[in-house]
Write a structure and sequence with these properties.
Layout lengths: L40 H14 L7 H8 L3 H13 L3 E3 L5 E3 L1 H24 L4 H11 L5 H14 L5 H10 L17 H4 L15 E2 L8 E7 L3 H9 L7 E7 L6 E5 L2 E5 L1 H4 L2 E5 L7
Antiparallel strand pairs: 1-2, 3-8, 4-5, 4-8, 5-6, 6-7
Helix pairs in contact: 1-2, 1-3, 1-4, 2-3, 4-5
Amino acid sequence: MRLFPFLEHSASSENLAADSEKIPSEGMPPADHAADAGLSTSLEDYLETIYELSQSGGKVRVKDIASARSVKAASVSVALGKLADLGHLRYERRGTIALTDSGLSIGRKMLSRHKMLCRFFAEVLQLPADEADAQACAMEHSLTDKGMNQLVRFFEFLGSCPEVGNVIERFHTCPRRHGESPAVQEEGPSPKAIDHCALCHPAPSSHPTRPLTALRPGESARVANIVSHGAIRQRMLDMGLLPNALVEVSRFGPGGDPVWIRCLGSQVALRRAEAETVLMLPEESANEG
């Protein structure tokens, strides 16, 4: 069954060609994404757009970016020139555009933030899809690593506390939320209204989690929780390892290290110790009706 039917998460495209295969460097990303390269919000948007377009598996051209962003081709060319000078992309033959490793990293990071913010505005606050998207676009640039981490922890909480679904459903149906006066309940609140949160007394799960390393090559599952902390956790969040994200194990390196996975349209490598901190749910557990 879906963890919360009212919190459905649309699957991302899985068609992006694999990133160049190399183990992630020892260096961790800066504390806040805005410090990645001193990029303006507009240039970050361009990297996100190019990254998202590339997930279709086809070539990305100036006209594609102009159409996606509803701007003139000349404006795109200026932005691409700046990004190329900063080393975030390169032009290829016949006018195609390819992101470099740094461009891929920033584009994927921005898309991860956008998806989390969209989920919050659309699924929790129930804004219309176009408004949720606009809010996410506005906020993704200023969302710090700490803010992203806490937002992800919120969705992890939604997937782990048996009672939180009732709380959010009550919020969605509360008359005060819609500017109405609540009806008087002469018999007092229902038992559910006074139940304590069951997070401290979790019920047995029919879909127990298992570490990412327990999956076989070619097997897919959905992210339930990441139990690591600090910069390692943040790097995995920026890779797209978000609650309910579909992940497929591609292969294991010699001795089981590193672990190559596909997530958010990219192929990336995790050290085995990192992968062991990613707890997974069976794919069908999040999709059963």
